[in-house]
Amino acid sequence: MKLKLNDATLFAKSIDLISELVMEVKIKVNEFGLSIVAIDPANVSMVSLKVPKSSFQEFEVEDENLGISLESLKKVLRRCGKSSALTLERNENMLEIKIEDKIKRSFSLSLIEIDAEDKEFPAHLEFSSKIDIDSQELTDAIDDCAVVSDACSFVVENGKFVVETKNINKARTEFSSEDVKVNAEDCRSRYSIDYLQKFMKAGKAFDRTHLNFANDHPIRVDFKSEVVSLSFLLAPRIETDD
Is the pTM of this model over 0.90? Predict the structure, then answer.
């Protein structure tokens, strides 16, 4: 196996984000590209990373399952600069990593056995609301709610998208259809701010965020580029207030 990315920026950032949810993963490599699917230990969220074959400048593979510690991998990938090329090669039970820019650096990480069953990111969920929004604006709205609560509601009402929380204290951000792309029915669902803030760290690398949700339903959060696609799934918090 040999994979090479001439620009490893988004891949490195994605691994960094996934490491906030899970400690170790199986990296799958096949004729279609590289992918990761994992569930966090609390079984509250799920993450999917896909890097298609077309993103790689070199792509020599057979089907591979690489068990890896994300803590170790992210530390290596943080050594990548904005102009660094990244090469991944399997050498028996080691993952050889080369970072090349003005100088050449190499690292070796031990592959590990992961007993967990292979997972598939759900494709069958139905959503009544689809929102396309500026990542920074959504981050700000979630952070506003974090000032007064540990959960917030995503609401669609009268063609407008709202992020709000209602406890003893309240916070509310309302977006009009001029601010965001709204293709949605009226609905409301509540989610953990801690998880949403972890997801939205991807907003520093992806300008747009795509949301899919429904009444008291899991939310799917997608970040997409030509190089990688990063998706999160988060269970709702069902509560009587708010």
Answer: yes
